[in-house]
Amino acid sequence: MTGRVDVAVLGLGAMGSATLYQLAKRGAAVIGLDRFAPPHALGSSHGETRITRQAVGEGSDYVPFVTAAHRIWRDLEAETGETLLNACGALVMAPGHGISSHHGKPDFVGRSISAAQGAGIAHEVLDGAEVARRFPQFLNLAGDEKAYYEPGGGTVFPERCIAAQLTRAAALGAEVRTGCEVLALRQEGAGVRIETADGVILADRAVVAAGAWSAPLLGRPFDRLLTVRRQLLHWYALADEAAYGPRSPVFIWMYGTGDTDYLYGFPPMAGERSIKVATEQYSTVTTADAVERRVDPSESDAMYRLRVENRLAGTTPEVVRTAACVYTVTPDRGFIIDRHPEMDRVLVVSACSGHGFKHSAGIGEAVAADLSGGAGRPDLTPFALARFG
Length: 389
Fold this sequence. Notes:
The chain has 389 residues and is α+β, with helices and mostly antiparallel strands. Helices cover 25% and strands 32% of the residues.
């Protein structure tokens, strides 16, 4: 049995590594547990890159998280010498007529513009003609598209961010225990008992940030609120890189009316002749342990034919590599940051619903502040369980 700690963090991916680091910065006695060895390729935080944009169309409640995350990643870069954030710009584009939706939010471009205006985030509003002039990699535009461009957006590198936060947490005194599966947890009096394959850990409080493994561990009501969806990432070879200049942005391109009528992607990485693109699906449910991690060649072929070909300049159907990851999704595609309804000493930080990594460093800071109490405690009401009834 491990001696009692202030906080145990269960799961050390995006949210868990950030929370462990922020708690260690505050001098808490903390332990982080993960059944694998993060950063790894079995959850939601792999694949080299993630999009970051400070004006989030998902809602203004998220803006403080991502704004803080950019600050934290820049501070970590100074401390570690790692490159964690590449502000190459972010473009969010939709048809100029009709209704388009992303992450369950209609008029996602308009919502992004409103969020930027409300928070004073530098941005531009572009039409399709201007997009084509600035960014020739986007083909066959109608010309009347509505686009939001954020020069401070861009790419974050998830594996590097997780590794940097775990390294700094350990340097600040946190215990990082990997290869340690959590079997059960329950509240006992003024603390939490955590049973692992390696023994029992006692903590004053626990943070569960186990992503796709959260629902089986937490039980009700999470077993009905959290679903796991398989997602695919594809890297296609470029025959011609001429259209991808030094300020090529990351992009979210909604070309239809439904949440799946779109693709997102990243400019070529330095020294590489390939482009990473993906979309999302919400129809097929799986589990973290049962998910098919192999990407069938037919899946990459369909992605290219239906979404990439004739939209992105220079691409070929040649697949350089692929990856599968998982989203843990709530009914409204929002986050959950709240106490367990039957264990008030267990804080659940999960269900990123496919748009969490860019917020993760800021969420870790907010969770640490919440657990520490006192002045500056954040308002996490928008992410409470009560909204589900």
